Structure formats: structure tokens, C-alpha cells
Amino acid sequence: MTGHIGAMSTIPDITHGADDIVVPFQVDELDLRGRVVRLGHSVTTMIDRHGYPPPVARVLAEATALTLLLGTGLKFDGRLILQTQTDGPIRMVVVDVTTPDRVRALVRFDADKVEEAVAAGHGDPARLIGSGQLVMTIDQGGDMQRYQGIVALEGQGLEKAADRYFLQSEQIDTRVRLAAAEEYVSEDGHMRRAWRAGGMLVQHLPKSGEAVTRDLHPGDAPEGTLPPDPHEAWAEARALTDTIGDDELVDRTLSPERLLFRLFHERGVRVFDAQDVAEHCTCSRHRIENLVKSFTVDERRDMVEDGQITVTCEYCSTSYRFAPSEFDTVE
Question: Is 276 within 8 Å of 209 (Cβ atoms)?
Fold first, then answer.
């Protein structure tokens, strides 16, 4: 669908109010491509399951938004795993995206140190994560070799670390914006707390020309206007992206299409169909059983408690229980 929408016109809310989606877009005038992610139920499920305190929950929500921005751009069936290993109160964050639409995540942290940091006014995500490494692993499955990129975390947080990752590993000018927030929602006549996360990734890809499915706005520039210099184009795109407020990234009443229109209506923005995403753990009884079989007889004997071997998935907290006799024939 292609259409022209004038400066005083309105645009359709194609995904108005939708959560747990990734919306790809393209701005031809600026040689720009990107994605917008909006999360609700998925991050709330992961946070509630573990009872993470709000400062930790915010980090998990933003890390999940970032990993989905990256993982949904993969052109093959596989996995993208983001992992931080740092010296901060939040020691490790792991987000695992299985293309095209499944995500799971977990956080390991020192509760006392998180509380101390917040009390000292250092409760922002960058301070809680601290210094160390951000590791991106792309797993194409099968016999394909894994690709791994490593970026130093030096207290700059996930946004700037992601920008640096693309500049170092792929030499692509990239700007990432992330945000997360708590809200109260009504459910069965009661108010409960929930989480929202949002993000945007923009990349400068000169002379790219992949077809897209529909236009939101062809731009207000006069007919025949020359496109900007590539350096000026990226400077403009980056400046526009930096005007986004955290509240706009998580606002359930502001669809990704409207947000993109606000930013790029003068240049024109086109979008792909939204990709739904969902919280989904890949654990299963069969996989856990094979894991237990990989241990030695003595190790399995040490795992027995109250006559059972119990293994709990760190991601989804599902517990799998086995009778020791199930492994009698395993050496």
C-alpha cells in the first residue's frame, strides 16, 4: 500500500496499542534503516516470574529490547545471545533470541549491592551493570561456526555499547535508544504493576535498496530536492533519533508508526509489517534429561535430594523431577 499524506493529515494507527512487536522501517532520503521494538506482556512475564526488584527489572527489560532489535534483523534461522559479564551489582544479564520471534532472559545480581547503589543515587542501568564485557553470539545452528563479537563495557551502558559494537564489528554508523518503565494496569477489577520496554535502532546504509511493503509518508520536501550529503544525512538522522524521549518509546498510546512519523515526516518513512515476538523458553523435559545423563554416576548421586533429582530452569523457573532409577542404565 502506497499513499501520500500531507502535513496536516493524519496517519493510520496500523499497530496502535500493540505490544510485543518489532516494526522495521526505512527512510530513503537519509539512506536509513532501522527497527522499533515495543514490549509489554513478554518482559512483565519474565520479571514477575523471578520477582526482580525494579532497578534490576529495568536492566532486563532494556537488554531484552536491545537483543530483539538486533536478533529480529537476522536473515536466517538461528539464535542471537547477548550476555554481559561485569563487576557491577548486576553481574550478568543473558538474553537469548531464537529467530524469528522467541525470547527468554535472566539476570544474576547481588541484592545487597543493588540496594546500596540505589541508596547512593547510583541506580541507573549503566552504574548497576558496571564495567566488563558485552558479548554478542550469533549461532546459526547445525555445523555452522558461531560468530562472537565482544565490546568493552566501561560504565557507558547498553545503548552506547551497542553503537560501539556495530562501529567496531561491522563499521556501520548506528544509534540505539532504549527505555523501560513500570505502569499500573487494571486486571479483573484490580490494579497491578506491569512493565513496558521500548527501543529504536537506526543505521546509516548508503545506497541500500531493499523493497518495502507500504509507505506512511513520502516526505514534505519539494519535488526534485537533492538528497543530503551522506555525512549530513547521518548527522540529521542521529540528531532526530536523539530527540526521542524515554516516555515516547514506552507509551502504549503512541504507535511505532506515529513515532516514526513524528521523527521523519519531512524526509518520508516507509515501514515493513510488524513482527510479533513472545517470551518463550526452549527448555523441555527431554533436554533436561539429556543434561542429567551427561553427568557421571557420582555426580548424579550427589544431585539426589528427598529421593529425587530436581533441575530448575534458570530462565523460566520450571522444575523437572526425575527418579534416580531413570538413569540406572546410564554409565
Answer: no
Give the global pTM: 0.85
Q: What is the pLDDT of residues 186-207, one digit of tens each?
A: 777 788 889 999 999 999 987 6
Q: What is the pLDDT of residues 291-328, one digit of tens each?
A: 999 999 999 999 999 999 999 999 999 999 999 999 98
Q: Identify residue 248 by its one-letter amino acid code.
A: E
Contact 64, 278 (CB under 8 A): no
The span from the CA of 13 to the CA of 308, in Å, is 53
CA distance 182 to 192: 10
In which band, very low, low, confident or very high, does the pLDDT at 229 lie, cut at 50, 70 and 90? low
Number of other residues whose CB lies within 10 A of the CB of residue 224: 5
Give pairs for 178-185: CB < 8 Å, separation 24+: 178/62, 178/65, 178/66, 178/249, 179/62, 179/65, 179/246, 179/247, 179/249, 179/250, 180/43, 180/57, 180/58, 180/61, 180/62, 180/65, 180/250, 181/58, 181/246, 181/247, 181/250, 182/54, 182/57, 183/252
Separation of alpha carbons 128 and 131, rounded Å: 9
